[in-house]
TrEMBL record:
A UniProt-annotated Pfam family: SpoU_methylase
Region (Disordered): 156-191
Any one Gene Ontology molecular-function term assigned to this protein's record: RNA methyltransferase activity
Biased composition (Basic and acidic residues): 157-167
InterPro entries: Alpha/beta_knot_MTases, rRNA_Methyltransferase, SpoU_MeTrfase, tRNA_m1G_MTases_N
Protein name: TrmH family RNA methyltransferase
Keywords for the protein's UniProt record, in alphabetical order: Methyltransferase, Transferase
Length: 191
């Protein structure tokens, strides 16, 4: 899969939820994890982060939204259950993204929402646990950007295997130019 992603949470207060989200981020191969203004005891997180994710992926803690820094070109995507939010199944994930969830009993702060390139919601009847929401978003990213065989029409059928990737010669995407012109080998105006 191309690109990378990170995931984080603003104002989280329940260490079990944070540990669950960290473990899921590790399982889905996140590139980094971050918290913004958390209120928890770090030793309590280990009770639910049984994969010891903090030893396997970078973990950044920011005291405020203003301190949040992301890699160049990384788009911040808020996960928020509002009427205005775009539904996750219709959302095109950026190649480089950082997903951020709000606190357990609240919403993303207005300052953080304003920094988001997009705000997305999971189409459920009501809000789900922050750890569950994060796992759903990461799963959707993997399914939509990953290279998987198409699902068969019949639920009892097995998917056709993916064709092997073929490495080959140069592909000319502009058929009006010859390979020589594309490579700078075309004739000059004086010829």
């Amino acid at each position: 899969m191309r690109g990378y992603f990170g995931i984080g949470v603003e104002g989280i207060s329940k260490p079990m939820n944070l540990g669950n989200l960290l473990r899921s981020a590790h399982a889905f191969d996140a590139s980094f994890f971050f918290t913004i203004a958390p209120t928890f005891q770090a030793r309590d997180v280990a009770l639910s982060d049984t994969s010891d994710a903090a030893q396997h992926l970078p973990l950044y803690n920011f005291d405020s939204v203003e301190e949040l820094t992301l890699p160049r070109g990384c788009q911040l995507v808020g996960i928020e259950f509002t009427e205005e939010s775009q539904e996750l199944p219709s959302f095109r994930h950026p190649v480089a993204a950082a997903y951020v969830l709000g606190p357990e009993k609240g919403s993303l702060s207005p300052e953080l929402s304003a920094r988001c390139e997009a705000v997305v919601k999971i189409p459920t009847k009501f809000c789900v646990n922050v750890g569950v929401a994060g796992a759903i978003v990461m799963y959707d990213r993997i399914v939509s950007l990953g290279r998987f065989a198409r699902r068969p029409v019949n639920p009892r059928a097995r998917p056709d295997p993916m064709a092997e990737h073929v490495r080959g010669g140069q592909v000319i995407r502009n058929p009006s130019k010859s390979p020589e012109q594309t490579a700078g080998g075309g004739r000059s105006a004086g010829e």
